[in-house]
Write a structure and sequence with these properties.
Shape: globular
Radius of gyration: 22 Å
Distance between the termini: 21 Å
Number of helices: 12
Structural class: mainly alpha
Helix content: over 70%
Number of strands: 0
Number of domains: 1
Largest sheet: none
Length: 346
């Protein structure tokens, strides 16, 4: 039997979601001056094509999130899960911070619908793991093209090589953690020991339940291979649409570029923005992209404008659209709170 949501917890959910919306609006205002300038120079006949690729990318993200949750036993409707996946993905892109903002929204909204904590966390981690496959697939292409077309200094080459190697090692460790149960259990036991020393709380039961949830989800994925295959197809389509949106942004500013140059600047620029931990990689992603594209022969002015136009198309406009979804979620939660209060009073 599902636990009835408490009005106090629903008010907390609404308050946190409103706070995240306000933070997102502040980021939007800070970035809007440059956005307005670049929109004035763009060929508006091509911008709708960039928005179409953006819509395809977010649709894949949203449906992939819903699929991951069904694999891990979250029994919510596909529409509700896709809606939550959309607003949380937009928030993650806009605010970054390791995805904490988007994951918090997922956790709070899905708990209100009766989903179990361990299922939510396991599904989100599995979804993030598969999503990282796309970037990992693009990274060697970008690095290889950069080294082939513009040889770097020995020190820089070594640093880039070490960074790429570390990312590959982390990916294989993450794969082993997901698929190999003994390794995952061992890591979780060590994590519990560290957490107990730091917090003086026993997390054994919670981590055991998480481990069991991961094992159950991996078991479902193995017995129903079409579901993870669908998720991988969605990830590939998502990243392809994202890259296509950037290409259209360059084309809209009168500077179409080759696929190799496009992938190099996109992959390394987005990676730099994520690693910066600034909201959405604000400034870092644009400067990294512009510098890399300039290094590869793209006029610097055009590279800057294209990277800013990409931020408007792929980050800011979807955020404005997501506000409508936030409104619907808040309205739905508000009705649920009123109904629960009425039942309690009667």
């Amino acid at each position: 039997m599902t636990e009835q949501p408490k009005p106090g917890r629903q008010r907390l959910v609404i308050g946190i979601v409103v706070a995240l919306v306000i933070i997102g609006l502040l980021v939007l205002v800070l970035d809007w001056r440059d956005a307005r300038k670049v929109l004035g120079e763009a060929d508006w006949r091509l911008v709708p094509a960039a928005l179409l690729f953006t819509a395809i990318s977010y649709a894949c993200l949203s449906f992939g999130f819903a699929t991951a949750n069904h694999i891990f036993g979250v029994h919510m409707s596909w529409l509700d899960l896709s809606e939550i996946g959309f607003v949380s993905s937009v928030l993650n892109h806009l605010l970054s911070a390791g995805g904490a903002a988007g994951y918090s929204v997922r956790l709070l909204l899905m708990r209100e619908q009766g989903a179990v904590l361990q299922d939510i966390v396991a599904a989100s981690l599995f979804n993030s793991y598969l999503d990282s496959l796309g970037m990992l697939a693009l990274l060697p292409i970008g690095l290889g093209y950069l080294l082939a077309r513009h040889p770097l200094s020995p020190g820089t080459t070594v640093a880039v090589g070490i960074a790429a190697l570390l990312l590959i090692i982390l990916f294989f460790l993450a794969t082993a953690m997901v698929l190999v149960h003994p390794l995952r259990s061992s890591v979780l036991r060590n994590l519990e020991k560290v957490a107990r020393r730091l917090t003086h709380h026993d997390l054994t039961h919670a981590l055991d339940e998480f481990d069991a949830t991961m094992s159950r989800g991996v078991g479902v994925a193995r017995t129903r291979p079409l579901l993870p295959a669908l998720m991988i197809a969605l990830v590939l389509t998502d990243w392809s649409a994202c890259v296509a949106a950037l290409w259209v942004c360059f084309h809209a500013l009168g500077n179409p570029i080759s696929l190799g140059v496009l992938l190099t600047g996109f992959t390394l620029g987005v990676t730099a923005g994520v690693l910066s931990m600034l909201p959405g990689g604000l400034g870092v992603q644009e400067s990294s992209m512009a510098g890399l594209y300039s290094l590869l022969g793209v006029p610097f002015h055009r590279a800057v404008l294209a990277s800013i136009l990409f931020r408007v198309v792929y980050y800011l406009i979807p955020y404005l659209v997501s506000l409508g979804f936030y409104w619907w979620l808040l309205r739905r939660l508000g009705h649920a709170t009123a109904e629960t209060s009425a039942l309690t009073e009667s």
